[in-house]
């Protein structure tokens, strides 16, 4: 066997173990008994220690030195990912990696209980520990550079906070102006009544299949916070049900199917290799957001979904025409929850978190002051006060999981989706005809061929440029939002 063969064989085993570690996290979110939390914390820490040992194994350095820079583009991409992972992992002490895994498993349980009790003070002590350990990890990774950039690089390789600040700064004025114009208009109609939770789950599974999710290689379960997990032949998604708010369930499902389809559609030859997963969280989010918003909330698709809603829940759902249903799906209204926000206001929720978490990591904001800082910023951005912690600082799982640097990829994904959708409309001029029949294959097929199948072959920016035919910019997203909501609200 050549050095490259040895390197890839070793890497496949590491990737397989990482998938098992991911399954432990999936189980903790969905099925694990509550009393198993402490044991699961130790299990995840042990698995992380094993993975860290493999990722820093000195043989990787030897194999990389022998391999050099392969001429084959696929081999070169594999080596690029492995070298990057090896160099980053080598900077983080094994004990620190294990301590973080153990802590975030415990922190998740504390967060879930604090959220249920609306008690930020109960969560603050463990959050301080998480911030401290992740800051230490960031400092080790940065090696004298910017700590937050080092953490961001875990989720969006090559991205810099300064560039995102500039991009998001360009987003904010037009978003705020459009939001104010829309909210000055009479409110749109909404659904009324209670929607059976089993009916929601049945319709969720139908929607998953409609958007191309392979149920033979996946499953749909319920969790507090919807997510997608896994890759290749085992990609699982979760959603949540609220009897009075069926769109929460249905559009969470479509969103997670966007993530899952990306993973399922990657070239099978890349399975259990560094190329076998989504290249970044921003690119991942572009798939979930274009599925959920540009496709799932389009006028054409809403016409089909209206019929499915009536078939599932009966004719009395609070709206009596396809157009009113479309308006209900896309109505803009004040709300506290990021995951329930309309697509016009969603990015304002993300930008709040991006600014706060950078301040936490830099030390400019103390955890004890976080709740007040959140509430002040929220009222300034949205014009009304947070009523309770579960609707504010405790609503998201990310900080309990130590995912600092993750939040900005949500808005970056929206920007990418805007660019991709502009290209998709040009490539598939009869797109709406299929969506009106509940046929998403033209859109999902275009995304599969132009982006998803490549997995990690190209850099995040490169894969977007190849598919969209332009460098990522906020312009197409803003143009799409202004055209859509100006039409809806008669601006």
TrEMBL record:
It comes from the Bacteria. One of its GO terms (molecular function) is metal ion binding. The keyword Zinc applies. Broad specificity carboxypetidase that releases amino acids sequentially from the C-terminus, including neutral, aromatic, polar and basic residues. Its cofactor is Zn(2+). InterPro entries: Peptidase_M32_Taq. It is an enzyme of class 3 (hydrolase). It catalyses: Release of a C-terminal amino acid with broad specificity, except for -Pro. The active site is at 256 (proton donor/acceptor). This is Metal-dependent carboxypeptidase. Zn(2+) binds at residues 255, 259, 285. Binds 1 zinc ion per subunit. The lineage of its organism: Bacteria, Pseudomonadati, Pseudomonadota, Alphaproteobacteria, Rhodobacterales. Its EC number is 3.4.17.19. GO terms for biological process: proteolysis. Keywords: Carboxypeptidase, Hydrolase, Metal-binding, Metalloprotease, Protease, Zinc. SUPFAM superfamilies: Metalloproteases ('zincins'), catalytic domain. Belongs to the peptidase M32 family.
């Amino acid at each position: 066997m050549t050095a490259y063969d040895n390197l890839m064989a070793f890497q496949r085993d590491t990737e397989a173990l990482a998938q098992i570690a991911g399954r432990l996290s999936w189980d903790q979110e969905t099925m694990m008994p509550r009393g198993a939390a402490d044991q699961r914390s130790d299990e995840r820490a042990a698995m992380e220690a094993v993975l860290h040992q493999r990722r820093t194994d000195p043989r990787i350095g030897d194999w990389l030195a022998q391999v050099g820079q392969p001429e084959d583009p696929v081999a070169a991409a594999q080596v690029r990912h492995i070298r990057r992972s090896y160099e980053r992992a080598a900077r983080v002490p094994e004990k620190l990696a294990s301590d973080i895994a153990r802590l975030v498993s415990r922190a998740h349980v504390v967060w879930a209980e604090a959220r249920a009790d609306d008690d930020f003070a109960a969560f603050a002590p463990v959050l301080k520990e998480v911030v401290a350990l992740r800051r230490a990890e960031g400092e080790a990774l940065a090696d004298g550079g910017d700590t937050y950039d080092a953490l961001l690089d875990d989720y969006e390789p090559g991205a810099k906070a300064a560039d995102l600040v500039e991009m998001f700064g360009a987003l904010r004025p037009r978003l705020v102006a459009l939001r104010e114009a829309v909210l000055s208009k009479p409110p749109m109609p909404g659904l009324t009544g209670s929607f059976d939770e089993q009916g929601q789950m049945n319709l969720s599974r139908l929607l998953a299949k409609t958007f191309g999710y392979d149920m033979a290689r996946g499953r749909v379960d319920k969790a507090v916070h919807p997510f997608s997990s896994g890759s290749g032949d085992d990609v699982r998604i979760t959603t949540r049900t609220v009897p009075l708010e069926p769109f929460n369930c249905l559009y969470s499902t479509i969103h997670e199917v966007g993530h899952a389809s990306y993973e399922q559609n990657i070239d099978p030859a890349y399975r259990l290799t560094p190329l076998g997963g989504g290249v970044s969280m921003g690119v991942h989010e572009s798939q979930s957001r274009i599925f959920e918003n540009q496709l799932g909330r389009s006028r054409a698709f809403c016409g089909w979904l209206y019929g499915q809603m009536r078939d599932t829940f009966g004719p009395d759902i609070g709206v009596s025409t396809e157009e009113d249903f479309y308006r209900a799906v896309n109505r803009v209204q004040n709300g506290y929850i990021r995951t329930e926000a309309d697509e016009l206001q969603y990015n304002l929720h993300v930008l709040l978190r991006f600014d706060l978490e950078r301040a936490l990591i830099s030390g400019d904001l103390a955890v004890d002051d976080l709740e007040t800082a959140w509430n002040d910023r929220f009222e300034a951005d949205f014009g009304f006060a947070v009523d309770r912690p579960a609707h504010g600082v405790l609503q998201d799982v990310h900080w309990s999981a130590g995912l600092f640097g993750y939040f900005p990829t949500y808005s970056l994904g929206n920007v990418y989706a805007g660019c991709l959708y502009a290209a998709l409309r040009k490539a598939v001029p009869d797109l709406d005809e299929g969506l009106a029949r509940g046929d998403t294959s033209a859109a999902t097929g275009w995304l599969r061929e132009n982006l998803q199948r490549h997995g990690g072959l190209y850099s995040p920016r490169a894969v977007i440029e190849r598919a969209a035919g332009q460098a990522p910019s906020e312009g197409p997203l803003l143009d799409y939002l202004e055209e859509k909501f100006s039409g809806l609200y008669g601006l």
